[in-house]
Specification:
This protein has 297 residues and is mainly α. The chain folds into 2 domains: 109 residues, Orthogonal Bundle (Farnesyl Diphosphate Synthase), CATH 1.10.600.10; 171 residues, Farnesyl Diphosphate Synthase. It contains 14 helices and no strands. Helix 1 crosses helix 2, helix 3 packs across helix 4 and helix 5 crosses helix 6. The longest helix has 26 residues.
């Protein structure tokens, strides 16, 4: 009886392609694990089979962010957009786009969220600050919200209701990071607090640069944190509309943002002496409550 096995010459290229793809995902995983975040985008609560795809998404966002923040290289961001187009046309270049193309194909992810991230990173190069909270949220629409939408695509959710709730979490988490990093951003010449809010509370930029913890600054931060907490709590309702592991991750992300806000409050809004950060107990509490299906208070 004739053997139905493919000849070695046919099997070998297939094995090579599989090995190349595995190496591409490993490369993305190294990038994801090599950068500190308040909580990694592929948290330990996420199903193991999903993590490599989260790593591919994270590696794309991380490398593009570095091009904007560290290298300030618009030309390289433009090249990333061309590489993204090639990946979607079936011609991925390099390990990052090989993994990303595979993830996009498997989960039918449109290119727009990836393009939106590049739009935000380009604006970082010519940073001018924000006049109003609405302007800041418009920035978050491109810099943060696409990541949440990409996660929803991975889990098969494509409807507007879930996307809007995800946007609230992602924007709220980004705002929480801004309030946490006021001093760090000042060193980079950036102030994310809306100028209208600074004027409303009578806070001068020079006061921020001096690290002056005044009652006016505390009132300003209390206001910003209150608005941010409201966004995160509303967005956290997403956990009731998703299943399984994603429900826990939603609680982890939203709860993490709320924990950052509490850390800022614990130091009475003094973000100048040291960066308010989460401690080990915070992480344990977040993980335990997420596993129990509850939002950390």
């Amino acid at each position: 009886m004739a053997c139905a096995c493919a000849p070695e010459s046919v099997r070998e290229p297939a094995r090579n392609r599989a090995d190349e793809l595995e190496a591409a995902y490993a490369y993305c995983g190294q990038i994801a694990r090599g950068h500190y975040e308040n909580f990694t985008i592929a948290s330990w609560l996420m199903p193991r089979a999903m993590r490599r795809h989260m790593h591919a998404i994270y590696a794309y966002a991380r490398l593009a962010d570095d091009l904007a923040d560290e290298e300030r290289d618009r030309a390289k961001l433009d090249q990333m957009e061309r590489d993204l187009e090639e990946a979607y046309n079936g011609r991925p270049r390099g390990p990052l786009f090989l993994a990303l193309a595979d993830t996009a194909r498997r989960y039918d992810i449109p290119p727009q969220p990836f393009l939106d991230l590049l739009r935000a990173f380009r604006s970082d190069i010519d940073f001018k600050g924000f006049e109003t909270l609405d302007e800041l949220l418009e920035y978050a629409r491109y810099s943060a919200n696409p990541v949440g939408r990409l996660v929803l695509f991975l889990f098969g959710y494509r409807d507007e209701q879930r996307q809007q709730l995800s946007d609230l979490i992602c924007s709220g988490l980004q705002l929480a990071n801004f309030w946490q990093d006021v001093a760090i951003d000042l060193e980079k010449g950036r102030v994310y607090i809306p100028r209208a809010d600074l004027r409303r509370f009578g806070v001068e930029i020079e006061e921020l640069k001096r690290g002056a913890l005044t009652p006016k600054f505390q009132a300003l931060m209390r206001n910003e944190i209150g608005l941010t907490r409201e966004m995160l709590l509303k967005g956290a309702e997403l956990h009731r509309l998703v299943a399984g592991g994603l429900r826990r991750d939603v609680l982890m992300f939203a709860g993490g943002g709320l924990a950052i806000l509490r850390a800022i409050e614990r130091v009475e809004y003094d973000v100048f002496k040291r960066r308010p950060a989460l401690n080990k107990l915070d992480y344990v509490t977040l993980g335990w409550r997420a596993l129990c299906g509850r939002l950390a208070p």
